[in-house]
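[READ THE FOLD]
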Amino acid sequence: MATTIEKTLRVLRDADSTITAAAIYSLSDIGDGDLAEFKAGWLSIPTERRLQLLQRLGEISETNFDMNFADVTRLALADADENIRQAGIEALWYDESPNLMRRLMILAKGDEAENVRAEALSALGRFILMGELGTLDAQSAREAQDVALAIYNDPDELTQVRRRAVEALGNCTREGVAELIQEAYDSDELPMKASALFAMGRSCDDDWADLVLQELTAEDPELRYEAARATGDLELEDAIPVLADLLRDDDREVMEMAVWALGEIGGNASRHLLENASEEAEIINDEGLMEAITEALENASLVGESLRFDD
């Protein structure tokens, strides 16, 4: 009789079949024996199917906190396909284990694929933040910071990787990081400038407020997008009038980020703008935008409740 894992592997090998709930659930909190069996069959699963599986595991982990696919997902980090390795990192968004941090440091420093190095750095930002919050020991956090700093300062590294180092370092208060963010912002390379704005928001430092507000009206949509995100992270009430304009931005992603930022800032003015935007989205039957606005309104209400409690 076939084992549960054998049945799961059969489903995953068949590219024309649906990945069933039973197959997914069999991979949660997997035991050592089943993990060894699944590992032996991992490469027999077609590449596109492995990628589809990782995406499903990451999505389910966002809504079902009882599911833990970390042991299975980590198999992807050693996959020969760079897109699988990147997807594995993304799907492990909830994994805060020291083991994963070490693997990410190795990938960030030495993976041959640019997209994997960049993704590993983005994930390392989570561990750097944990160090700031006191949920990761200072020495480990320092090691993660050192990796990001070394990569940012490597003149031979690609901008698409170095910019993720800036974003990761935005999560820490280490001496010299503010100067690094300023240097990145002053760069002639637009992606680096955008990442500097991201880092400004993550820094929780209001000293960046003037630069962030200035970039809300930048010509390039990527800069407007990151500036809007930063206003939400920094909860800048002064940004509300410009965010109101961005609710009608020509760039859809900028518009949705303005919605999110208003939800983070909260307050009566933000809620009023979001309620009006919701009515307009309903008229044109834009379900995606209505969903984003609903989430932002819920968050804006929570922000308001928190403020009243603090008072």
